[in-house]
Design brief:
Layout: E1 4-8, H1 16-31, E2 35-39, H2 43-49, E3 52-57, E4 60-66, H3 67-71, H4 74-80
Parallel strand pairs: 1-2
Antiparallel strand pairs: 3-4
Length: 84
């Protein structure tokens, strides 16, 4: 079986209830030891299931770190999560 899953925008255009299901499946796969590389614009969902995150702007990594740290970083919150 595979040991790595690569996904590019798996939630693009999906209804919120379907996005939640995709996130549940990814968490389940991760729990089984599958490594997941996820490119996703839904930062809140992605950081909610990730160990690490890389924030990119126009193809350049502008910030990186533990997902929990990025989720609480004021710059990330303000610019990408829609809160001040």
């Amino acid at each position: 079986g595979p040991n790595t899953l690569l996904l590019d925008e798996p939630t693009l255009g999906l209804a919120p209830v379907v996005i939640d299901k995709v996130a549940e499946v990814l968490v389940s796969l991760r729990g089984r030891g599958l490594a997941i590389l996820l490119a996703e614009q839904n930062l809140r969902m992605a950081l909610g299931i990730a160990d690490r995150g890389y924030v990119m702007e126009t193809g350049t990594v502008v910030q990186e770190g533990r997902a929990a740290d990025l989720m609480n970083d004021p710059k990330v919150v303000s610019a990408y999560l829609g809160a001040a």
